[in-house]
Amino acid sequence: MMVNVNICRDNAGNIKRFVVKGHAGFSKEGRDIVCAAVSAVAYTAAGALGDLVGIKDYFEERHGFMTCSIDVDISPEMKHDAEVIMATAEIGFKQIELAYPKHVKVMDEEV
Prior knowledge:
By secondary structure, the chain is an alpha+beta fold. It has one domain (3-110): Alpha-Beta Plaits. 41% of the residues lie in helices and 28% in strands. It contains two helices and five strands. It has helices spanning 33-53, 76-99, and strands spanning 3-9, 15-22, 59-62, 65-69, 104-110. A five-stranded mixed sheet has the order 3-4-2-1-5, covered by helices on one side.
């Protein structure tokens, strides 16, 4: 088992979306610190995009899956803030991957 995080970028290298899928399998469901860490980063980014930037209808989630996208028409100021949040989430995901490489894989893709 593994959590896969896809970081989706535009051709300029800006993060437009992240997709989190799977379960870490580090421990039992409900006690898995790796899943909890990945979830905390993902939900913090989603919350910041909504509460701090004001983006609406930007994420979808269900058990073992979350996608969060800023591929919407927003002002340059909002876009900058959203890109900072997405880049911060990427750093968080990659730090977890470094600590738990058998349980988390972060991949970049151009969209």
